[in-house]
Amino acid sequence: MKFRGKIIDIACLNHFSRVVTTISKLTKMCVLRLTPDNLFFVLSGKVANGGVGMWCELLQANFFDEYQMEGVSSEFNEICLEVTPENLSRALKTVQNAKYVKIKLTRKHCPCLTIAAELPTLSSVSRVVTHDVPVDIIPKSLWHEFKEPSIPDFDVSIYLPPLKTLKNVVDRMKNLSNFLLIEANMNGEMKLKIQTDLVSVTTHFKDLGNPPWGEDSSQDGGPSHSRDPEDMAEARVDIRKLQQFLMGQQVNPSKAMCNLVHRNVVHLVVLHEDVSLQYFVPAVA
């Protein structure tokens, strides 16, 4: 197994660093899956058992000037590594103004992602900084746990309001309850509700719009045309898990969507030009 990549463009380096920082806010540990064309950050939380799930996909050509990898075999040409994204994020933050950054899979005292960067200097002597981020290599027998999740058969799909606005609302509601009820319909309406014995608070969003896949029942996962556009689907979630998702966003997305499986799961999708992030939050009774 071999992996090495090189980033020269500072804008690409900073963008990659922001993506990793976003991942680090969402989970303490995740799997970095390397293939010839893509990098994936995966958290295969058992949503059915109350865990969150995450799938973040990056096209390597949009970030790396050089990218070489050899998987476990020609038939299974990929590498799966368990990483602590916060360690990776810290290492990348220290080299943000570098002339170049090299990332390589190495074996020191344990397997590592070694990040080496040449930093600008006033003298003619180059200054190279190296960070070793420990990783665990995941055996092929466990790879099936880290495949792309299927889009659930959702009841409602809706665009989210600006994430900063949503975060401000959720931050305030978190002081009132540990749980939040999300309601939405195919008419572009969304409600966030807190209901306790002492207080009931609802925030209304209108004219959000619905993604085009929600208009065609023949597409996988799309809601059925038989559903009344006014009908609300709902899911009650742990507000801290939603807040964690909103706090983590370092990438300014071009689109953000929410798919609701009634009383089952909230599937959040954030799209940037070259990054897609899916986040699954299970509903609670």
Main features:
4 helices; 285 residues; Proliferating Cell Nuclear Antigen; alpha+beta; five-stranded antiparallel β-sheet; nine-stranded antiparallel β-sheet; 16% helix
Describe this structure in words.
This protein is α+β, with helices and mostly antiparallel strands. The chain is built from four helices and 18 strands. It has a nine-stranded antiparallel beta sheet. The radius of gyration is 21 Å and the shape is elongated. The model has no long low-confidence stretch (mean pLDDT 90).
Brief summary:
The protein is an alpha+beta fold and 285 residues long.
Write the layout of secondary structure elements.
Layout: E1 2-7, H1 10-26, E2 30-34, E3 38-43, E4 53-59, E5 66-70, E6 79-83, H2 85-93, E7 100-107, E8 111-119, E9 127-134, E10 136-137, E11 156-159, H3 163-174, E12 179-184, E13 190-195, E14 200-205, E15 233-238, H4 239-247, E16 255-261, E17 265-271, E18 275-282
Antiparallel strand pairs: 1-5, 1-7, 2-3, 2-6, 3-4, 4-18, 6-10, 7-8, 8-9, 11-16, 12-13, 12-15, 13-14, 16-17, 17-18
Helix pairs in contact: 1-2, 3-4
Keywords: Cytoplasm, DNA damage, Nucleus
Subcellular location: Cytoplasm, Cytosol; Nucleus
GO biological process, one term: meiotic DNA integrity checkpoint signaling
